[in-house]
């Protein structure tokens, strides 16, 4: 018999289709296919939904096992839910009424660091599992472990805030932030990390390595998109997929494309994604870069998940030029599902997912000249594409990943549940 699992995410993919939200939602459906009683609760706020007076809960679709939880106001620096008078009582009632055996947390943004202790207080018998999708707990600069201004990366936790570049906070505030968050995470029974690199960062930060298990993310099965016939005179087509923000490296990619044009390289670049919820300065920078781009570059704009196969069919290479320590980018798994080799920054979880020289190529992050050189090599050597694409491995299936989680859950649940 499988446990009752409540899945918590920091948004719903219908409102914000980020990689964490998509994976959490896919895993929830895989739990259901495994005959689990499962409930998906996505936190949201007024960025995506207006508050509805009289209740903290909202419907997201016609499903009876998915809902939104309006999470009020959130202190991003301290990762604290500041609207506890509304949030805590309403969510406590949901916990008591649904009574899960496992609460699987996928993020604490919007929910607040207080969430695990609230669950433990309301349901002492419930086991708490938390997947660490990024470094939010470690780094107050949106969990990037990158200096906000210099874009310099760091791997060791920065206890006094010198390395993240946030203004307006003292060293004491940074120290107390780390102490407070680690204290609240003591009640989490098991952490899951999709990459060894991310696990190491949390071990450096003070989490016992025995409390973190590495389980790779998975994807629902799809039919691979057809491949183009490279080497018949058609230019190589490079594709970028995802949101456009200062840390994903799309600006680096556009700068690299200008260098390819200057080198008279025959290529095409399709940018899939849009600039959403970014600063005015970055938005204007991207608009300027697109305006100055040559005919080789097409900005395709936002896309829906069900369009990915068709969009992948029109590209030969997928580029993931992120300048921060990506953990387990969804786009790499999507590229591999469709047999596309990946050119990616050789850092973090990206370096784990892409085997340099086997199913993709690593490049130095935040280096347009290096990226342009590699893209030129790819565009002028059809044998390289044939070699790398032939060695692409499909990612794990989401149902298999769900079974790994469920096996772990069964070992954790209360004894009377196991006996039943």
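^ structure tokens above, recovered residues below v
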């Amino acid at each position: 018999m499988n446990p009752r699992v409540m899945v918590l995410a920091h948004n719903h993919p219908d409102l914000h289709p980020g990689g964490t939200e998509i994976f959490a939602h896919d895993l929830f459906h895989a739990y259901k296919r495994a005959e689990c009683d499962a409930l998906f609760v996505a936190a949201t706020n007024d960025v995506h939904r207006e508050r509805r007076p009289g209740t903290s809960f909202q419907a997201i679709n016609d499903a009876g096992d998915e809902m939104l939880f309006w999470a009020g106001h959130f202190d991003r620096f301290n990762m604290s839910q500041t609207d506890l008078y509304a949030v805590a009582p309403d969510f406590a009632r949901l916990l008591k009424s649904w009574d899960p055996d496992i609460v699987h947390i996928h993020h604490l943004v919007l929910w607040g660091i207080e969430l695990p202790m609230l669950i433990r207080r309301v349901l002492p018998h419930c086991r708490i599992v938390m997947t660490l999708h990024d470094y939010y707990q470690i780094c107050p600069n949106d969990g990037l472990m990158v200096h906000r201004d210099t874009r310099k990366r760091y791997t060791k936790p920065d206890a006094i805030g010198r390395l993240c570049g946030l203004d307006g906070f003292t060293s004491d505030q940074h120290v107390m932030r780390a102490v407070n968050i680690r204290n609240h995470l003591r009640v989490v029974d098991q952490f899951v990390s999709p990459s060894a690199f991310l696990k190491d960062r949390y071990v450096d930060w003070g989490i016992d390595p025995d409390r973190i298990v590495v389980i790779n993310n998975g994807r629902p099965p799809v039919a691979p998109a057809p491949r183009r016939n490279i080497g018949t005179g058609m230019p190589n087509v490079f594709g970028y997929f995802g949101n456009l923000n200062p840390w994903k490296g799309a600006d680096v990619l556009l700068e690299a494309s200008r260098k390819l044009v200057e080198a008279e390289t025959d290529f095409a670049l399709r940018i899939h994604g849009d600039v959403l919820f970014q600063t005015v300065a970055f938005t204007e920078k991207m608009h300027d870069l697109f305006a100055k781009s040559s005919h080789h570059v097409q900005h395709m704009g936002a896309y829906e998940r069900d369009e990915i196969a068709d969009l992948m069919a029109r590209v030969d290479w997928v580029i993931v030029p992120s300048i921060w320590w990506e953990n387990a980018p969804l786009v790499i798994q999507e590229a591999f599902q469709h047999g596309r080799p990946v050119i990616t920054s050789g850092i973090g979880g990206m370096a784990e997912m892409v085997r340099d020289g086997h199913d993709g190529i690593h490049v130095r992050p935040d280096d347009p000249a290096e990226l342009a050189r590699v893209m030129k090599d790819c565009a002028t050597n059809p044998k390289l594409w044939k070699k790398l694409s032939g060695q692409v491995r499909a990612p794990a299936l989401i149902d298999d990943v769900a079974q790994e989680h469920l096996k772990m859950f069964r070992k954790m649940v209360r004894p009377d549940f196991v006996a039943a």
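The two ends are 8 Å apart (CA to CA).
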